[in-house]
Amino acid sequence: MTSTARASGDNRLASIIRAKGTEQCIVVAAMKVGIVVPYSWSFWGAVVEHAELQAAALRRLGLDVRLVMGNDPPGSFTRILHPRLGRHDDPPPGVIPVGRSVIVPANGTLPNIILSPRSVLRVRRVLELERFDVIHVHEPMTPVPGVATLALARCPLVATFHASGELSWLKIAAPLWGFLMERIDHRIAVSEPARESANRYFPGDYELIPNGVLIPEQADPAGREQRIVFVGRQEPRKGLQVLLRAWPEIRRRTGTRLRLIGADPLAVRLLQARLRVSEEGIDVLGLLSQEELTAELLTAKALVAPSLGGESFGMVLTRAFACATPVVCSDISGYRDVMEPEAGLFVPPGDPAALAEALAELLGDEARREELGRSARVIAQERYSWERIAKRLAELYESLAAPKAVAA
User: Fold this and answer.
1) Segment 53-88, tens digit of pLDDT
2) Per-residue model confidence as pLDDT tens digits over 286-321
3) Mean pLDDT of 257-267
4) Pairing status of strand 327-330 against strand 207-208
5) Are residues 230 and 284 in contact, defined by beta-carbon separation less than 8 angstroms?
6) Are residues 6 and 58 in the same domain?
7) Is 193 found in the same domain as 95?
8) Which of 4, 179, 180, 252 is most buried per CB count within 10 Å?
9) Residue 20 is part of which domain span?
10) How many domains does one find in the chain?
């Protein structure tokens, strides 16, 4: 009988294999995976959430996982660089910080990217100390951690591309460090729009693996509170201004409450004042933990996602699906790949009247709303379960990592 094992520093598990009446002691090492993210752990975003849930799902399969990303600790310097709210306590043990972040406008959003040159040295140190078997880089062409990892890593590399659209920063990246794409052993895109956008600058083979979603054990679409939920940052492309313009009519026709999650409370109040929209019936909750977000979605009657564009994948949609919460969302690229007629309603982007009409229609027919919620949850379980996605990733990592036999 032949067996193999992987050496990952001192992280090794002893296993006894019995074959043909004899005992052979084999050392079997848990695969060590590094997940590199170019953004800050301190601020919520779709890629950050994806990486955290990916790490948790892989750990449940027995892999040894570390997240390598930015962190912005509390203090006056962070308040100057980042006016919005975030997670400013210490990251959990599985997160290895490699530098502070700054806000860089890109693709209609305001991500928190690590740009300090010192982060290159920190990435080098992490790679030397951790000795990963495989590294999975998210948005590999975004500086600094991803690009540094491509240049410095000495193990198999997997890369996932999330963004879609024009991606103007890739016009700069391609001639400067685009040659590092050749170091990637396997390319992944989370959606067809993301694959098309990445392939435009870096032609090649991209496997489609969607963003996974956290699926609660129980979710009943019936008996919900009279409330709807918006989840997103206070950025124009997320369409919060469209929702607020529609709100007086939604409130008048349905009597529902609106729960705003993820958006900075001060920015929301300023937007309400500029649009002259009353605060009546609106709860601004700010940034919530994964558990708190799940609790909100499990009690809401619907999620509303009025984005105007720039979405490569509807993570907030699938999150609602998992909680048996139907969706009213804009008919835009990225959402179309996720949304199904049996899970909610499409509306034209940027149309407050159509948004109000769709929500009034959905909330006015409880039987239909509950049926849409049940169907949405089935879609999440069948297509976006992290359990299924993590198994595919583990198989991929195993195929790329060269096994090392370690005799005991």
Assistant:
1) 999 999 999 999 999 999 888 764 555 565 556 676
2) 988 889 999 999 999 999 999 998 888 889 999 999
3) 93
4) unpaired
5) no
6) no
7) yes
8) 180
9) 1-30
10) 3
For residue 40, the cross-strand partners are: 70
Same domain, 362 and 391: no
CA 264, 139, 382, 218 torsion-angle sign = negative
Residue corresponding to tokens 């369409």 = 239
Residue bearing tokens 């997240």: 67
Q: Over the chain, what HEC string results?
A: CCCCECCCCCCEEEEEEEECCEEEEEEEECCEEEEEEEEECCCCCHHHHHHHHHHHHHHHCCCEEEEEEECCCCCHHHHHHCCCCCCCCCCCCCEEECCCCEECCECCECCEECCCCHHHHHHHHHHHHHCCCEEEEECCCCCCHHHHHHHHCCCCEEEEECCCCCCCHHHHHHHHHHHHHHHCCEEEECCHHHHHHHHHHCCCCCEECCCCECCCCCCCCCCCCCEEEEECCCCHHHCHHHHHHHHHHHHHHHCCEEEEECCCHHHHHHHHHHHCCCCCCEEEEECCCHHHHHHHHHHCCEEEECCCCCCCCCHHHHHHHHCCCCEEEECCCCCCCCCCHHHEEEECCCCHHHHHHHHHHHHCCHHHHHHHHHHHHHHHHHHCEHHHHHHHHHHHHHHHCCCECCEC
Q: How many CA atoms lie within 13 A of 171 on its CB side?
A: 6
Q: Report pLDDT for 403.
A: 58
Q: Are residues 178 and 308 in the same domain?
A: no
Q: Are 240 and 232 in contact (CB under 8 A)?
A: yes
Quote the pTM value: 0.80
pLDDT(101) > 60: yes
The CATH number covering residue 338 comes to 3.40.50.2000
Closest among 405, 408, 365, 332 to 165, alpha carbons compared: 332
Say if residues 299 and 292 touch (Cβ distance below 8 Å): no
Distances (CA, A) of 166 to 39, 110, 194: 20, 15, 10
